[in-house]
Design a protein that fits this description.
The protein is mostly helical and 225 residues long. 68% of the residues lie in helices and 11% in strands. Helix 3 packs antiparallel against helix 4. It comes from Euphydryas editha. Keywords: Membrane, Transmembrane, Transmembrane helix.
Length: 225
């Protein structure tokens, strides 16, 4: 848990620093225009002087290249590799479970089955994430190519694709919660203990908080996650 908390803090700081220039790359200046036959003073949006000093191309190419690399490509590639490794680990665990079942070692077999279910759940969650994130990465890469090298992107279509992909990203969040609830009894029990008063559940004489995921591991054949 301490490592997880540190990683979350580092990721949050990196995300904040990545988006920080976007808070200051525009400025609003007064502008006089004709409205219904008389002059009105309104605000006009323009790029900040420091962006023009860097050049618009350098600024936006750097921003979107960083986004494609560290927000899309590296995470998605890492998750694809993780999915492959999880699938291999699950296959190995399934073989070990069959051996334990034949040897009538039911307790170890059950622990291995629970660990296998957790691995399968992670594969499903990662797959859902990739299904909604890869299209965004593709559109962003096409946008960079179209803005710097050759115009290949119809932005009317691109804007619709972005709206659709953003919608599915939002939809994926409750889907992930449903996956956790549907595939993990440990998650359901811990969720009840944390958020539903009086719903204290126990399994095998202990709380689900000290389960295969969080508690001490006693079976060396478990899938290491």
């Amino acid at each position: 848990m301490p490592r997880v908390k540190k990683c979350l803090i580092y990721i949050g700081i990196a995300a904040f620093l990545h988006q920080l220039p976007r808070f200051f790359d525009h400025q609003y200046v007064p502008h006089v225009t004709v409205w219904r036959g008389h002059f009105e003073e309104v605000c006009r949006v323009q790029m900040a002087p420091w962006v023009n000093a860097l050049s618009l191309d350098a600024y936006f190419i750097t921003y979107f290249a960083f986004r494609v690399l560290f927000v899309h490509l590296i995470p998605c590639t890492s998750l694809v590799v993780l999915n492959v490794l999880l699938f291999r680990a699950m296959r190995t665990a399934q073989i070990n479970r069959q051996k334990l079942f034949k040897e009538n070692r039911k307790s170890e077999c059950k622990r291995l089955r629970d660990s296998n279910c957790t691995t399968l759940m992670l594969i499903v969650v990662v797959t859902v994430f990739l299904m909604v994130e890869i299209p965004v990465a593709v559109v962003t890469i096409l946008h960079i190519i179209s803005s710097t090298l050759v115009e290949i992107l119809d932005y009317n279509i691109a804007n619709r694709l972005i709206l659709i992909t953003n919608f599915f990203i939002i939809v994926s969040y409750p889907i992930n919660f449903a996956i956790y609830c549907g595939m993990s009894r440990q998650f359901r029990e811990t969720f009840k203990e944390l958020f539903i008063r009086g719903a204290v559940t126990s399994r095998n004489g202990g709380s689900s908080r000290y389960s295969l995921v969080n508690g001490p591991r006693t079976c060396t054949n478990e899938t290491v996650l």
